[in-house]
Fold each of these.
Amino acid sequence: MSSEPSQVPPQAPDPSEIDDLPRTPVDPRAPSHVLLHMPQNVRSAALGVLMVLAVLAVLHLAQGFFIPLMLGLVFSYALSPVVDGLQRWRVPRALSAGVLILAILGGMGASVYSLSDDANDLIASLPDAARKLRDTVRKPKQQQSTLDTMQKAAAELEKAAQEAGGSAPAPARGVARVIVEKPKFDLREHLWTGTLGVASVIGQTVMVTFLTYFMLVSGTTFRRKLVKIAGPGLAEKKLTVQALDEINAQMQRYLLVQLLASLGVGIATGVCFAIVGLKHAAVWGVAAGILNLVPYVGSIVVTAGAALVAFLQFGALDMALIVGGSSLLINTIEGYLLVPWATSKASSMNPVAVFIGVLAWGWIWGVWGLLLGIPILMAVKAVCDRVDHLKPVGELLGT
């Protein structure tokens, strides 16, 4: 007969023994401890990070496809109110879209042709301005600057140290000196590269034009298709309609803000330069208005170029500083006060998140990323605000 081992229940510790144990003194001013638990599903987080990296790589490698697509979408959002208004007047969408696009292209071509002479003169004066600025900054050879004296003293000290340490090798006989010469300027190669660049720009322009036309002609076709494939339930379709409406409204308000801001910057720059007496003030106004669409980079280009040309025209650094300072003041008021306030009202987005997002898109797509970064972030926020798992992203982008 086998006897099972009896299990002895654990006994509670004696309170007297607990009181005898040494205790660590507790500082009443110390903050309370909070235990943070790591998320259990680490694999999902790792897969999410890998997916984000894969998407960024695809966007960078396939930018030749995505950039014209995004440009076509932005232009279709900008022109759709006009086409919709003409459609309400019983004008076919195909006809109104074609006439509108041709009118815009014709107006741009006429503006470029009317300002081409001034633009050519301005571009031709840039090398002379750079040469004159270099001659002014550089001191005459007869006057020895402090930096040259310090460089010669450092060279003499280095030579003395090498001779004292015996590290200076004696020149060997029969050893040929090798001189690496820079390749000469090849005009044909640069012309071929420039021709390919111009052909690429023309091809991209034609692609974006036709893409914008087809999107304007399609109207609400893709909208209805997205609502149809959103899900079988009424809630999914309703959220899709709300997201599309918000993207449409925010995109049109943002484009209107950018159009008014660029128009204001162009007019203010042209008038200010004309008052100062800078030549080709109208060309500078048009350039400032167009480059204002590129955040942060366009204003720097206009300010530096205008200051350089002003130095060539007036021959004085103070006039160059006045012209550059006025351009910088206009772009600062527009870029750091008016446009951020109007954009936050139009899109309800956090300026810090917008700045970081624009830098990220600029890193992926270059100048086009700087131009398209804010519209993409607006669309991302509109979608994230209505998806439960993506609401933290929308919260980060929001105000």
Note: The CA atoms of residues 4 and 125 lie 106 Å apart.
Amino acid sequence: MIKVEFKYTAVGDALRETAARLDDMTPLHQGIGEYVVNATKERFKKGVAPDGSAWAPKSPVTLANYLAKGDGARPDPLIGPTRRLSNEIASLASPSGVEVGSSLEYSAVMQGGARKGAFGKDGRGRPIPWGNIPARVWLGLSDADEAAIIDIADEYLEAEFDQRGFNAPQ
């Protein structure tokens, strides 16, 4: 009887090490988060939603309020005097995923819109908000973003396997 025994300890060790590294996908998620933050900031410059549609313009009343407060003409949608929403987009990566968004209270209103008075009344009995706010979807993924994220993941996995000496078949 012939006995053949294969001992691939180096391969086994490399596979186990790669699997352990893939248990913590934080570096990949950080890369994805950075990409989405940058793509979102670029959309602010263009004034468009992830699907490429233009954001609703500011109302004449809003524009007049900016002028009355001395903030100048601010015609670009979602760009106010402080530019906080466009500047404070952040990502938070973990081993299991990534979150991208804003901690600003009004960010959800800008994303989904709000009807006049949706949040009750102020101390003087005026509706909050004082007028309808159209949805201006600022957070999300375009088809190009989805493709880019797949590329980021492919590059990450390829680099992980290349470090172990595993080359993808051509």
Note: The longest helix spans residues 26-46.
Amino acid sequence: MAIPKKLKLMNLYNEGNSYLGQIGEVTLPKLGRKLENWRGGGLNGNVKVDLGLSDDALELTWKLGGLDPLVLQQFGAQTVGAIGLRFSGSYQRDDTNETTAVELVVRGRHEEIDFGNAKAGDDTETTIKTICSYYKLSIDGETVIEIDIPGIKEVVNGVDLLEKHRQNIGL
């Protein structure tokens, strides 16, 4: 029997600024593919053709206690990779005490800043939705997935899935 690795400690950095003690929750980006049904002549059924990343892939949602001026200053950023965020998590198995470092580095810009409800004496929380154009997931220092949308790169387990496509269009 094995106990799963569970998140024990985490932090989020915004342009290198630590949110230790302020970050309440992080919803890591969902990895999704846009698949479209294709049933060509002679096929006895549909196959799903891979058209790349899904439209809602690479959205990072995070919640801060209170209010942060830096996030507000970043609203309306002019480029798709204007803001750098880094999630660091420490996962642990309680049966073996083994720990695993997980790091997610993204670049993007904020689509939404939600201040939530404001009531004196109650907890206040700001929810930020960041749309990412760059994504790199590393586990124990090894890159597992790296996606650079403007750079036309998608590396999974060391293999660049778009390398031949870039060559085919002269890049």
Note: The chain is about 5% helix and 55% strand.
Amino acid sequence: MTEQTGNAETGGLILNLECILAAPPEDIFRMLTDSDALSQWWGPHGFTLPAVDLNLTEGGRYRFRMTPPDGEPFHLAGEFLEIDPPWRLVYTFRWEEPTPDDRETVVDLALHSDGKGTRLALSQGPFLTEERLALHRSGWTESFEKLRAVLDNRS
């Protein structure tokens, strides 16, 4: 997995991650947009995703309930801005129980054929603080590890 961090023109912090996954873009796009598939891999290690509500249309909304290993469930939600199967998915991301440094960000997931697999490029931001960016970097990195494991177990 590769990473870059940069400043957006808005002055915020942008998270950029890439990973290579051993499945075609169509399979990866389904893993990013199907409720049952998302519940298998979304969130850091030890977290579960017991509720996924998706309206996968541009302008449609989504809401996830995440449960940490030791703690109360919390929620994230947003709106789909661009859906271009199987190449691109763009949506807003906001915590429903935010900390003071949280603000709505935009997640841009771009899929590219890479030999027998897919290169998944993520961009998210702008973040207000390095701490919030680091939290999302960790969450996405662990989520992508879980996604890779789900894909490996299918073979």
Note: The beta strands are 2-7, 13-21, 48-54, 61-67, 74-84, 88-95, 105-114, 117-127.
